[in-house]
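Z., the sequence and structure:
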Amino acid sequence: MNKVILMGRLTRDPEIRYSQGDNALAIARYTLAVERRFQRNSDQTADFISCVAFGRSAEFAEKWLKQGTKICVTGRIQTGSYTNKDGAKVYTTEVVIEDQEFAESKNSASAGGSDFPVNNRPTPSAASGDGFMSIPEGIEDEIPFQ
């Protein structure tokens, strides 16, 4: 099985091109900066993953995605190679996007900028002694489903 799930931020606006022919197909390319969970001695804290989307997914990327947007993507890894103009063989690895969606609200994105959040977990002071976060009194009345 070849399945990839990534969450990260776009390093730049997607690059959009259209195939030639009667049925032009949109092709979007972008790079995701995916934060690593653990660091070692001030090493790089993110991996930069090349992604490509086709058709409606590419049109979505063109319309809605921009540099710094945090998204979650699913897809498959695809490898390939080509010979460049200098005659050297170049190997490529990219994620072919099957699905992409926003990973944060617009308000969170504008408040936090494009910096990676350290984590989205509650601080230890918000947790009770059993490791669970305390639930405020009267919250049951505000829950839309029960």
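Residues 10 and 38 are 20 Å apart (CA to CA). The first helix runs from residue 56 to 64.

Let me know what you think.
H.
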